[in-house]
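>> received
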Amino acid sequence: MKVLVTGAAGFIGSYVVKALVKENFSVIALDNLSTGKASNLVKDIPFYEIDITEKALENVFQEESPDYLIHLAAQSSVIESMSNPVEDCQANLFGTLNILRYARQYGVKKCVIASTAAVYGNPNIFPVVEDSKLSPLSFYALSKLSAENYILLYEKLFNLKSTILRFSNVYGPRQPNGVITSHIKCLVEGEIPTIYDGNQTRDFIYVKDVASACIQSMLSEQTGIYNISSNTELSIKQLYKEIADLMDVHTEAVYEILREGEIERSVLSNFKAMDSLGWSPIYHIEEGLKETIHYYVNLNHI
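>> returned
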């Protein structure tokens, strides 16, 4: 089976590609390298340096005829979306529409498409389930939710089978930004981390668990929307303490006010994905943090 992965040189995409190659799938990688790195790419697989908003995207579908699509290319920064909502919309909504158009036209059997926990906003009931109220607080969340609606309608109107995965906070080695990466890098470099409020909570999921969820979703007959999460709530203050303890450092962080568009509390139920997709997370937060810390400590010593 041939699988096209968009955002293949990015953080999550590179792990998905490696997992697919390991399981002997034929993989086509696509990335515009705006945030992804060529060094993340697996060698000896076809790679197209193309933006998903471009007409040239059709050439990839035409030449490769993929059986499946895992769509991870996105503008993923909440902060960037608040500064540049038009660019955010172009990448996350128009880019996804381009993907859907060619997936339908060239007979893709199933699409797995990344979304985000940010679509829920600040919910009142926890853990958050897939049919909870949706209330985006950022343009990033809004663009991802808008894309979800197009995906669902494409399946309804054109029978383009699709699974939408709402990721909680993904972390791991090679993540270009994010609270865990930021804290570890600061401590490795002997700097003082900045924490915005710190009482806000997140549901952290290790990137290797996310990669396995993407593949399991692709192989499953099920479609629809699924939370991909650890179902575990952790405050940013507690997270920092765990990282500092694992690194055996005792640097006090600097605290500032919560930034605009940030969610105060987030923990997602993963029961539906476990029950319907046969997927479950393997990595406990401590295990994932140890692997991530090990990567950045060694990187600093190269």
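>> The mean pLDDT is 95.
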